Structure formats: structure tokens, C-alpha cells
Amino acid sequence: MADRTSPSHIQQRPYGSTIAPPRGNNINHPIASFLRQLQSQSPEHSRQRFGLLAFFISGGILLLLTGITVTAFVLGFIAFLPIIIISSPIWIPLFLLVTGFLSVAGFLFSTAVVMSWMYWYFKGMHPVGSEQVDYARSRIYDTAAHVKDYAGGYFHGKLKDVAPGA
């Protein structure tokens, strides 16, 4: 009988590619034992184990990428720190100018949006959210009317206590 690992037993695949014959089962290999455990368990357990395995693999990859990112940031910060310190008289006023400009622009934009919405609302054109505003207004009016009725009755009773003939 010929040796199965000799070149004469290499199998031919379609399209001319060759593969080596399968080697013997290594029972003690950790991946093989893990796969056997997956196959021997119920489908629910194998799905849970596969999910746990996928979780640990993706978590490890993300942890590695986080470490690389933090390391690159720290090294870049160390490398550019002298340039940042030397050019700080330029960066601080520039930062303040840009921050102030963006703040003013944001406030003006939001004011224009609110004024536009109010214009549409008071003209009766029903902008987005006008139903909620109408509902809140009616709830506030109803609550105020209930408080007025309650307070009117309460104070009217107190007024009779103070002045019985009134």
C-alpha cells in the first residue's frame, strides 16, 4: 500500500488545480474539539456559542483598532506639540473668532427658523408641529378654566365666612 501523503496520491481537481489529500484527524487540536462541541450540542446552544465567538472576535478587533487609534493620536500629538505651542498665538484668537462667528450664525439661523414658523402659524398655514401647539394651548386653557372655577368657588365660600351677609 502506498503512502497517502506521497506526491503520487495528490488528487486532481477540475480546471487543473491540485490539492493534498486530507491529513489524519487531530483529536487534540483545540479548534477541532470546539467544532465537535458545537456539532454535538442542540442548535440553540450552537447558535449561542457562535454568537459568543463572533462577539469576542469582533470585540477583539475593535479593541485592537481602538488601541491603534489612541496610539496614533498620542504619537501625533507628541510630534506636533512643538508646532502647536509655537503657533498658539495664532490659534487661540483664530479659535475664538471661529467659535464666535459660528455661535452668532447659529443663533441667527435658529431665530430665522422660529420667526418663519411663527409667521406660517399665525397666518393659518399649519406648519409642522402646529397640531401639538394647538393641543397644548387647549390643555392650558382647560386647566386655567378649571383652576378659575375651583378658586372662584373656594374664595366665594371664604368670603361668606368672613362677611356672612355678603
UniProtKB/TrEMBL annotation:
<dbReference type="InterPro" id="IPR000136">
    <property type="entry name" value="Oleosin"/>
</dbReference>
<feature type="transmembrane region" description="Helical">
    <location>
        <begin position="91"/>
        <end position="122"/>
    </location>
</feature>
<feature type="region of interest" description="Disordered">
    <location>
        <begin position="1"/>
        <end position="24"/>
    </location>
</feature>
<comment type="similarity">
    <text>Belongs to the oleosin family.</text>
</comment>
<keyword id="KW-0812">Transmembrane</keyword>
<dbReference type="GO" id="GO:0009791">
    <property type="term" value="P:post-embryonic development"/>
</dbReference>
<dbReference type="GO" id="GO:0012511">
    <property type="term" value="C:monolayer-surrounded lipid storage body"/>
</dbReference>
<protein>
    <recommendedName>
        <fullName>Oleosin</fullName>
    </recommendedName>
</protein>
<keyword id="KW-1133">Transmembrane helix</keyword>
<dbReference type="GO" id="GO:0048608">
    <property type="term" value="P:reproductive structure development"/>
</dbReference>
<keyword id="KW-0551">Lipid droplet</keyword>
<keyword id="KW-0472">Membrane</keyword>
<feature type="compositionally biased region" description="Polar residues">
    <location>
        <begin position="1"/>
        <end position="15"/>
    </location>
</feature>
<feature type="transmembrane region" description="Helical">
    <location>
        <begin position="52"/>
        <end position="85"/>
    </location>
</feature>
<dbReference type="GO" id="GO:0016020">
    <property type="term" value="C:membrane"/>
</dbReference>
<dbReference type="Pfam" id="PF01277">
    <property type="entry name" value="Oleosin"/>
</dbReference>
